[in-house]
Amino acid sequence: MSNITRRGAAAAAALALAAPLAFAQASGPIKVGVLTIDSGPFAAYANLIEQGAKTAAAILNAEGGANGRKFEVVVQAHSGTPAAAVAAATRLVQQSGVSLLLGQTLSSHSLALVPKLADLNVIFIDHYAQSMELMGKGCTPNYFRVNTPDGVITKVMEDYVKSTGAKTWNLISPDYASGHSFSKSFQGLVGSMGGNVQQNLFAPIGTSDFGTHISQLSKPADAIMVTLFMSDGQSFAKQAKQFGLFDKYKVVLGNGFATDFQLDAHGDNVLGVVNNLSWTADLPGERNAKYVKEFVLATKRFPFYTDADVMAALEVFRAGVVKAGSTDAAKVRKALEGLKIDMIFGKGIEMRAADHHLIRQAGMAQVVKSPGGKNVFVMKAVKSGPEIYPAPNPECKAQ
């Protein structure tokens, strides 16, 4: 047999072996890669992200999955640095064969991941990072986002900030991409109303002693904005209570600070704080009510906004897969651009084609004491997506 004939026979054999594998991949489970952080202040909430993703997948699987295929969640933990997030995402794609990435991705993680998505040939639906850069230079074709970025959160706060009459503000934020992004956005809001920011502080991730920061924030101002997350936020709230910091202000606002999944841990340390809250269990709509009911049955707890954002990411991906008839990244990407989706946030929620952002609702809520003595949220404002999302940034190259 000639070399050409032997090569042809070998190629035919390889195709014959590959065909069943390709068919199995096309008809088998759709693997979803979930990134979690196993060290530092975000580690305490990794289990919530995993539970939210697995519960959302189970709910969608009970509805038939996507094109008859079920979702399978694959979790990959890492140490919490951008490089570690990229390495973990690469393992999920190359070793586990996932078609979708999501999970605990800080803004710095997402910004590190987006340039890698084309080579990885995978869709990343962000439900975690808030940086505005991901609506501009950080846009890439395979990147989508369903949660509310910093500029949108600021827009939600606009009417409330104006109604307070506060003219002088102090700010404290985490010293990484999202903290700086939100600080810049909020300073712009205050300035547009004729106010000014007197103290604009940044705390490293993992700060345990906020004494120096609290001392600086004790200088007189009408209002304070706290953008501290996870265990950092809890440490700050506890120490602020000890020093009576919040009593010095007429207004205390939070961004990702007094959140629903941290409310019990905060105790009375955040009473009175008005915080952005993008979703609640009593949001109107049959789809949302069904999700909440099934989530409670599965987990024996009510879903938090972080759970809802994970569910939204999977609902969006399912809609893209169904329309595309495939999990191929290029086909799903094309299917999602401009698609209007019926989901837990409402009917006909648009995935904007220009920048791959879900144009969804967001709101604000205040922490109050219920008649039964439990700390709860009372909604102060809810705004629809078209009211709060900025026009697409011309620097975005999502298409």
Brief overview:
This protein is α/β, with parallel strands linked by helices.
How does this structure look, described?
The protein is an alpha/beta fold and 399 residues long. The protein has 2 domains: 22-148 and 284-359, Response regulator (Rossmann fold); 151-277 and 363-388, 3-Layer(aba) Sandwich (Rossmann fold). 42% of the residues lie in helices and 20% in strands. It contains 14 helices and 14 strands. The protein has a 7-stranded mixed sheet with strand order 7-6-8-9-10-13-14. It has a 5-stranded parallel sheet with strand order 2-1-3-4-5, sandwiched between helices. The protein has a two-stranded antiparallel sheet with strand order 11-12. α2 crosses α12 and α3 crosses α4 (107-113). The longest helix has 25 residues, at 3-27. Mean pLDDT is 92; it is low at 1-25.
Give the tags.
Rossmann fold, alpha/beta, 14 strands, 20% strand
**Beta-strand content:** 15-25%
The CATH class of the largest domain is identified as Alpha Beta
Report the span from N to C terminus.
Answer: 50 Å
Strand order, largest beta sheet: 7-6-8-9-10-13-14
CATH architectural category of the largest domain:
3-Layer(aba) Sandwich
Integer tally of domains: 2
CATH H-level name of the largest domain... which superfamily? Answer: Response regulator
Class derived from helix and strand content: alpha/beta
- The 3D shape can be described as globular
Helical residue percent band: 40-55%
Largest sheet: 7 strands, mixed
What kind of assembly state do the chains in view correspond to? single chain
> Which residue ranges are poorly predicted, with pLDDT under 50 across at least 5 consecutive positions?
1-25
How many β-strands, per DSSP?
14
Q: Classify the fold: give the CATH topology of the largest domain.
A: Rossmann fold
Rounded mean pLDDT is 92
Radius of gyration of CA atoms, rounded to a whole number: 23 Å
